[in-house]
Design a protein that fits this description.
Layout: H1 2-21, H2 43-60, E1 71-81, H3 89-102, E2 105-107, H4 120-128, E3 150-162, E4 167-180, E5 186-199
Parallel strand pairs: 1-2, 1-3
Antiparallel strand pairs: 3-4, 4-5
Helix pairs in contact: 2-3
Length: 205
């Protein structure tokens, strides 16, 4: 009984010590984050890269359709060639949202490198057309899907450079290309470079 009480006291004191040393959790103002930079990529880097790419693409005129209509865009492969396990959708989604808001393009989710992003578009067609419980006049007919005009692809690269015994530099390259699917020609390309310098003890993954 005494041993149980003693261990309970020890665990309680240990818990108090660790809780007293813990960093306090606070909310971040993502629109005005003054926090220290990190050697790896964070949301600020993705926001900056995406915004630069959107502005570059819109300024190039590559998505200005002659008749004033909107191009149909499909997202191709975005390669992660960094040491980090990042989801490239962090970059792509922000670019897609910006382009959609511009009114210059619409994005198809019915096709993609690894199949449809939204499988429901095809699933409802195949399943509901043979289901008598559904009014067939309300089921999407054959030949109603719109094929994409443009394909957006890209790559994120990382290069680590040793500056001296205590300092390293990490460079991140955001590369994007917009290809006309009909001709296979790139209508637009751009690159955004983010460089960071810090301690060799810091990890960039």
């Amino acid at each position: 009984m005494r041993r149980t009480i003693r261990w309970t006291l020890i665990l309680g004191v240990t818990g108090l010590l660790f809780s007293g040393c813990a960093t306090k959790t606070t909310n971040i103002d993502i629109n005005n984050d003054k926090g220290d930079a990190v050697m790896g990529l964070d949301y600020r880097d993705f926001q900056g890269a995406a915004q630069d790419m959107i502005e570059s693409l819109l300024a190039s005129g590559a998505v200005n359709k002659p008749n004033g209509e909107r191009y149909v865009l499909v997202v191709s492969r975005i390669i992660n060639d960094t040491m980090q396990h990042i989801d490239t959708d962090q970059l792509v989604k922000k670019i897609r949202v910006g382009l959609l808001r511009s009114g210059k393009v619409v994005v198809t989710t019915a096709v993609g490198v690894n199949g449809a992003e939204d499988t429901m578009a095809m699933k409802t067609r195949k399943e509901l057309r043979v289901d008598d419980e559904f009014n067939q006049k309300t089921v999407a007919g054959k030949g109603s899907m719109i094929a994409p005009d443009l394909s957006l692809s890209g790559k994120i690269l990382q290069r680590n450079i040793r500056v001296d015994k205590s300092t390293q530099r990490v460079e991140y390259y955001f590369q994007m290309s917009l290809t006309d699917i009909k001709t296979g020609l790139a209508f637009w390309e751009d690159e955004r470079v983010i460089g960071k310098r810090g301690s060799n003890k810091s990890v960039a993954w």
